[in-house]
Amino acid sequence: MKNSQKIQFRDYDVIRYPLMTEKSNLLTEKSQYFFAVDMTATKAEIKRAIENLFHVKVRSVNTLIRKGKQKVFKGRRGFQSDIKKAMVCLEKGQKIDITIGV
C-alpha cells in the first residue's frame, strides 16, 4: 500500500503544471500537450506520470530545457529560472481536458 502511495506522490512531483499558450492550445487538436516538468525527470518517468494521472495512452514524449533569462519588470531586474518542458503526444482518440484539473 505504501509503495502505490509513493508512486502517486512521485507522479505529481514529475508533472509540475500544464503550459497554456496559443501554440499549445492549437496543438491540442493533434493530441499534443505541453507540461512543465521536474528538471531531473526522464522521458520514461514523464510518460508513466501522464498515463497514471490522466488515464490515457502516451505515444511519445519530447523534452527541452529553456535556459533562464534576465528580465526587467517595472524597472527592476530579475532572473527567470530554467524550466524543463515536455511535449506529450497521445495515441489516436485519446484526449486530456487540462481545464478541469486532475
In short:
This protein is of the alpha+beta class. The protein has helices at residues 2-14, 22-27, 43-54; strands at 15-18, 32-37, 58-66, 70-73, 76-79, 83-90.
Describe it for me?
The protein is of the alpha+beta class. It has three helices and six strands; from the N terminus they run H-E-H-E-H-E-E-E-E. The strands form two sheets. Strands 1-2-6-3 form a four-stranded antiparallel beta sheet. Strands 4-5 form a two-stranded antiparallel ribbon. A hairpin with a 2-residue loop joins strand 4 and strand 5 (76-79). It is globular and about 50 Å long.
SSE-based structural type = alpha+beta
The H-and-E topology, N to C, reads as HEHEHEEEE
Number of continuous helical runs:
3
* Beta strand count: 6
The biggest beta sheet reads: 4 strands, antiparallel
Q: How much is the radius of gyration in Å?
A: 15 Å
Which key features would you list for this structure?
single chain, 102 residues, alpha+beta, four-stranded antiparallel sheet, 3 helices, 34% strand
Please outline the helices and strands.
Blueprint: H1 2-14, E1 15-18, H2 22-27, E2 32-37, H3 43-54, E3 58-66, E4 70-73, E5 76-79, E6 83-90
Antiparallel strand pairs: 1-2, 2-6, 3-6, 4-5
Helix pairs in contact: 1-3
